[in-house]
Design brief:
Number of strands: 2
Radius of gyration: 21 Å
Strand content: under 5%
Strand order of the largest sheet: 1-2
């Protein structure tokens, strides 16, 4: 290879990032992300960063995007890592599978979406005032960058607003969610581990239990609606 060709190859090589840089990029949206969780996700085969001669991990932009997808699928869809891994392997094979347990047609590409405040409002068909009210009612956490979860929630608030249900009517949902989070925390306390891999498994277990609670809540709501229509 000529010197010029080698130089061109180096210029076009994608940048690589250390663990600290990856955390700086992802923690604004995923504040629970830690170096130990990054290493655990690698151990589980969800991301495969390059290694330097000294053994340091180096993540490509594609690795960082993949990590964002994994974390979004855990947070937004309460999926265990083995399900996420199988889903991503299908995507790697060129397939476009729907997200397990998600609304029809939702794909891993949608999960990776990121929005600024103005982009979020526009994508949801909302107004800045509605977003402010949702934040004031503790339904959406303020952030510099929002994910798919915030988009779907804001779209739901737009639809509810059409029939007169406003964010202020839903303030109690945050309190209910905090109580359910406390239930989950107590449930996993006996099996809680303090080592790096254990903390990541605690997070996964908590996500699974949150998914079960969400299913129970949806079922109870449907039952209540059925009684009110009798």
């Amino acid at each position: 290879m000529t010197e010029g060709a080698a130089t061109r190859r180096q210029v076009h090589a994608p940048p690589l990032f250390g663990i600290g840089q990856v955390l700086a990029k992802l923690q604004p949206e995923f504040p629970e992300l830690t170096p130990s969780k990054l290493r655990f996700l690698e151990e589980q085969g969800l991301v495969t960063p390059a290694r330097t001669a000294a053994g340091y991990r180096k993540f490509s932009p594609d690795d960082i995007e993949r990590l964002g997808v994994v974390l979004s699928m855990q947070r937004d869809h309460y999926l265990p890592l083995k399900v996420i891994r199988a889903h991503l392997e299908a995507v790697d094979r060129g397939e476009t599978p729907a997200l397990p347990g998600a609304t029809s047609g939702a794909t891993v590409r949608a999960t990776a979406n990121r929005f600024t405040r103005s982009e979020l409002v526009q994508a949801a068909g909302a107004t800045p005032k509605l977003l402010d009210e949702a934040i004031a009612s503790s339904l959406i956490r303020p952030a510099d960058v929002y994910g798919e979860e915030a988009l779907q929630l804001l779209r739901s608030l737009v639809a509810l607003g059409g029939v007169g249900i406003e964010p202020r009517h839903l303030r109690g949902l945050r309190g209910a969610a905090e109580r359910q989070a406390a239930l989950i925390d107590r449930a996993i306390a006996p099996e809680r581990r303090r080592d790096a891999a254990g903390r990541a498994r605690n997070d996964e277990r908590a996500g699974e239990l949150a998914g079960h609670l969400a299913s129970v809540h949806a079922s109870v709501l449907r039952q209540s609606l059925g009684r009110s229509s009798d």
